[in-house]
Design brief:
The complex is a heterodimer of chains A (181) and B (435). In chain A, 48% of the residues lie in helices and 12% in strands. Chain A is α+β, with helices and mostly antiparallel strands. Chain B has 4 helices and 29 strands. The two termini of chain B are 43 Å apart. Classes of the chains: A alpha+beta (181), B mainly beta (435).
Chain lengths: 181, 435
């Protein structure tokens, strides 16, 4: 399928990106990476900052503190409307998590896929699952084992932010990385 | 024949079933009620205070009938008299006040501690007695008896079965992000008498009624994964029927109540539709496609499933028979986004969510002709569900920051917004007629 090919290509790209920056420290947050993408407006990077703050709060609530496995890596990445492709600016984030997981096979992670509120709820469960799976495949391609990764899709049921604007929606189309130990 | 305005013309066209499909200019502008509602006097019933628990039966009937958009009830303050028996109705007075019909009645306490409800309907133009209904109730279910009086009037004057004495289920959400509580609620069709069936700090989704109205199936994330439960309403007894790896979603009862169509993803994350036999726990695969296949709906005879799939790109509605699930037929074409279908009780129409521009609205499509009409006007309308008489559709809409429930008649002429508290309400599903 079309989407699958794209995911595979992106995953390969992310392997390259990972290899290229393997000697560098892990990416701190998505915002600096976002600014390097010509397709992303300043508004989007600003949004990403706010997003990480919101997602950080979410992760704390879920019991995975910022000091846990994965270190200071962003715990959330964002997606375009109706898309499960990992955006270029988040490839390093995924690669950083892959490295942390591949380095220690006892670490387990749950990928929580989310969508914005538009459209039907069960279909959105499907889209959220597709996003979580897209990240899962990228992790597996980078040496993470299947036993380390589980997925859950919340669809539109657990938004990160309220509001009914594109700004709010862009913060809700996401995958959260939740370390389980 | 002269039409006051274009709206009335569209209404008539739609009533005659001549409205062509999916043409934006032919969408019906929805009014609050029909242009010519039936004028009726609903006279206060004599009451059995305090045995009736303070419930004013005539007031409930008035609310039901006015809310249907098809009646206009007379103000009590304008009534010259308040008879409680057909024998005492002076039709000239009621006719002079512009009424076509008069409903009178009485609630009395019976010797065995129950309540007797009697209602009589009189034609104010001819004086003809149109019939009466007699019900026995208790203080606890007197409201339901009142809804049955509304059903009686609706049947007599509209010629169709009323759906006032039925129930709805919906999901209610309170609290701010990060501290939300989710409740599954069953209420009277008018939103009154809400009862919490399940309460959780994790999402609850996709309630579905069994055909006999005794059970609800739903999705709960209470175990941090999606699981499907079935719950008997009378006792609260419940059973987890699917908690497989990955997505467990979109449960739908077969008409015979023996099976549940549902959606599973497995570890691979690809959503497909299965049929679970509830007694044997055996699972039969229905779709096998790399697309998202979800939101199954049974045909009335249980031989066909309608469902949403994005196998052609965006989500559209398809159907296939259980006997030959590989022979899939696409049903919707009018928009790039058509999802979450529900079938009308007579099996002839589908209601679903359709995207119009950047808005998500409720549409109804005639299965024989393929004609589609958009019935709602919101920007985030979702989760349509037919009334058991097939005459209207309940759905959720966004009003400011709040999710609210609304109904629209299938002819598009009558809209109604359901009373709701501060909570966000969503995913309404209309229960079946109960004996």
């Amino acid at each position: 399928m079309h989407t699958h090919i794209k995911i595979l290509l992106l995953s390969c790209l992310s392997v390259l990106a990972f290899a290229a920056c393997a000697s560098k420290p892990p990416v701190k947050s998505a915002a600096p990476a976002a600014s390097s993408s010509s397709e992303n407006s300043g508004a989007n990077s600003a949004g990403a900052d706010a997003n990480n703050a919101a997602a950080g709060a979410g992760n704390r609530a879920l019991g995975a503190g910022a000091g846990g496995p994965g270190g200071p890596l962003a715990r959330v990445i964002y997606f375009d409307f109706d898309s499960a492709e990992i955006r270029p600016e988040f490839i390093d984030v995924v690669a950083g998590h892959a490295r942390a997981l591949a380095a220690n096979a006892s670490i387990k992670i749950r990928l929580e896929g989310h969508t914005d509120e538009r459209g039907s709820r069960e279909y959105n469960i499907g889209l959220g699952e597709r996003r979580a799976q897209s990240v899962r495949r990228a992790l597996l391609l980078q040496g993470v084992t299947e036993a380390q990764v589980s997925t859950v899709s919340y669809g539109e049921e657990r938004p990160a932010v309220t509001g009914h604007t594109e700004e709010a929606w862009s913060k809700n189309r996401r995958v959260e990385f939740v370390y389980l130990n | 024949m002269q039409f006051k305005n274009a709206l009335q013309l569209f209404g008539l066209v739609s009533l005659l079933g001549l409205a062509p499909a999916s043409r934006a200019e032919l969408q019906i502008d929805i009014t609050q009620g029909v242009t010519d509602p039936i004028p009726i006097a609903i006279v206060p019933f004599s009451r059995a205070v305090p045995a009736d628990g303070g419930l004013d039966v005539a007031e409930v009937v008035r609310h039901d009938l006015d809310g249907s958009g098809r009646f206009r009830s007379m103000a009590i303050a304008s009534m010259l008299s308040q008879p409680t028996r057909a024998d005492d109705v002076q039709i000239a007075d009621w006719r002079a006040a512009g009424n076509d019909y008069v409903l009178v009645g009485r609630v009395t306490a019976t010797a065995d501690g129950q309540l007797s409800v009697v209602a009589e309907l009189v034609n104010a133009l001819t004086g003809q007695r149109l019939g009466n209904t007699q019900l026995v109730a208790t203080a606890v279910n007197l409201r339901n008896a009142a809804h049955q009086v509304s059903d009686f009037v609706f049947q007599k004057l509209i010629g169709a079965r009323g759906a006032f004495a039925t129930r709805i289920a919906y999901v209610s959400v309170t609290g701010n992000i990060g501290a939300q509580r989710y409740s599954l609620i069953v209420a009277d069709a008018d939103g009154e008498n809400p009862k919490v069936i399940l309460d959780s700090d994790q999402p609850i989704m996709s309630p579905a009624w069994s055909a006999d109205g005794q059970w609800l199936a739903y999705v709960s994330f209470e175990n941090r994964i999606s699981s499907i439960f079935v719950q008997r309403l009378r006792t609260g007894e419940r059973r987890q029927v699917s908690a497989r790896v990955g997505v467990n979603g979109a449960p739908a009862w077969s008409p015979d109540g023996q099976r549940l169509a549902l959606v599973l993803s497995g570890t691979g994350g690809n959503l497909d539709i299965y049929v679970l036999n509830l007694a044997t726990q055996t699972l039969q695969r229905f779709t096998d496609n790399p697309a998202i296949d979800t939101e199954p709906v049974w045909s009335t005879d249980g031989s066909v499933l309608y469902f949403t799939s994005d196998r052609s790109g965006g989500p559209q509605i398809y159907r296939a028979s259980l006997a030959a699930p590989e022979r899939v037929e696409r049903l919707t074409f009018g928009s790039s986004y058509n999802a979450r279908a529900r079938l009308s009780p007579d099996g002839k129409q589908l209601a679903f969510v359709t995207r119009v521009g950047s808005d998500y609205r409720i549409a109804v499509q005639d299965l024989a002709s393929g004609d589609m009409r958009v019935l709602s006007h919101g920007s985030l309308d979702e989760s349509p569900s037919f009334a058991p008489n097939g005459m209207s559709v309940i759905y959720s809409a966004r009003q400011g920051e709040q999710g609210v429930l609304a109904t629209v008649s299938v002819d598009g002429l009558v809209t109604q917004r359901l009373k709701s508290s501060q909570a966000e309400v969503r995913e309404p599903v209309w229960g079946p007629f109960t004996p």
